[in-house]
Write a structure and sequence with these properties.
Number of domains: 1
Low-confidence stretches: 1-13
Strand content: over 45%
Largest sheet: 8 strands, parallel
Mean pLDDT: 84
Structural class: mainly beta
């Protein structure tokens, strides 16, 4: 595929050999909620941007994601039996996404002699889904501009290398659990009301583990937020 080509993938792809997805020049590849598995090498290359969102990529040998401009991997999983290379001519970002679970219950009841009761329960859970990259061999993240790692999990069976033409930012995100409970009852002579709630937050940071060397090369500063 060549020219100003825009490729969108939302599918399950199983390749008994290798798999190449190639969009040359200024083309863009958007891989969203896909499951791509190759028995040998898995290569994705975009002359423009390469965006991988909520997907699973598995390579029986090596995995390579290359973008002429920006490379964005969000809430995805990449697994390579040997090496994995993520290379961007511009920015490289490993991002998380929020998984929201919300429940609400409300009950009102009226009885005799003006008796009334009310109950309300609200529960909100926000779970961060970070990007996970696991390799049996080397893992390399290379960018011509800034890199961002947002609650990523990087596990390398050999060396783990981050090379940035700009800075490298490690951004933390928070899991949230929030509850609110209220109840009341009354009649013509009296009334009572009770309420309680709590909020718990858990900070999730990037985790990096290498069986070999951990190498960080950058032209600008490293930021931790």
């Amino acid at each position: 595929m060549s020219g100003n080509c825009h490729v969108q993938i939302r599918a399950i792809l199983l390749a008994p050999g290798g798999l190449w997805n190639n969009s040359q020049e200024s083309g863009t590849i958007l891989d969203s909620a896909a499951h791509i598995e190759a028995a040998n090498d898995l290569h994705m290359r975009a002359g423009g941007n390469l965006v991988n969102m909520g997907s699973v990529l598995q390579a029986g040998v090596d995995a390579q994601l290359r973008a002429g401009q920006d490379l964005i991997v969000a809430a995805s999983s990449i697994d390579a039996a040997q090496e994995a290379w993520l290379v961007a001519g511009g920015q490289l970002a490993l991002l998380s996404a929020e998984d929201l679970d919300y429940s609400f219950y409300e009950k009102k009841k009226k009885g005799s002699f003006g008796r009334k009761s009310f109950r309300s329960d609200q529960v909100t859970r926000i779970t961060q889904q970070g990007t996970e990259i696991t390799t049996g061999g080397d893992l390399a993240l290379i960018s011509g501009a800034d890199q961002t790692c947002q609650a990523a999990n990087l596990q390398s069976g050999e060396d783990l290398t981050l090379t940035s033409g700009g800075g490298i930012d490690f951004e933390g995100v928070k899991d949230l659990h929030q509850e609110s409970h209220e109840k009341s009852s009354s009649n013509w002579a009296w009334q009572s009301a009770k309420g309680k709630g709590n909020t718990d937050e858990t900070l999730i940071q990037t985790q990096m583990r290498a069986q070999g060397e951990l190498i960080i090369q950058k032209s600008a500063e490293i930021g931790v937020r």
